[in-house]
Specification:
Blueprint: H1 3-10, H2 13-19, H3 22-28, H4 35-43, H5 48-61, H6 68-79, H7 81-109
Helix pairs in contact: 1-7, 2-5, 3-6, 4-5, 6-7
Pfam family, one: CARD_2
Keywords: Immunity, Innate immunity, Isopeptide bond, Phosphoprotein, Ubl conjugation
InterPro entries: CARD (IPR001315), CARD_dom (IPR031964), DEATH-like_dom_sf (IPR011029)
């Protein structure tokens, strides 16, 4: 995942660790995660907070070609109303910190790929 997207998530890290249900999110990211990664997140970490930390760390290591940021945002939006609020906050941070570049990228790609989220991030 690129550094700007990581920073947007890191700004909300404490809230994500405290309130995100990583197992729900992981289920929505099954296409992006290997079986080994899913097992590591599920079994190696005893507390929900540890699982969330590990899931975020795994997503940060994913290449941009896999679109981990867009997939993560979509998973947040689809799992729970509280998660949806987190997704909106992360997107707001990302858009604010990257300004016109993000808006330009989203509008340029918005009609090109049917596999993107409603925010223009390709899946």
């Amino acid at each position: 995942m690129d550094e700007q997207k990581q920073k947007a998530i890191q700004k909300h890290y404490a809230t994500l660790v405290k309130s995100m249900n990583s197992l729900w999110i992981m289920d929505h990211l099954a296409h992006l995660l290997s079986l080994e990664e899913m097992e590591s997140i599920r079994k190696a970490h005893l507390t929900p907070q540890e699982r969330t930390r590990e899931l975020i760390a795994v997503l940060f290591r994913k290449t941009e070609e896999l679109r981990p940021f867009g997939c993560f945002i979509k998973a947040l939006e689809e799992t729970d109303d509280n998660h949806k609020i987190l997704a909106e906050a992360i997107l707001k941070t990302y858009t604010h910190e990257n300004g016109a570049n993000v808006a330009e990228k989203v509008s340029r790609n918005s009609h090109l790929d049917a596999g993107e989220t409603e925010h223009g991030f390709k899946m």
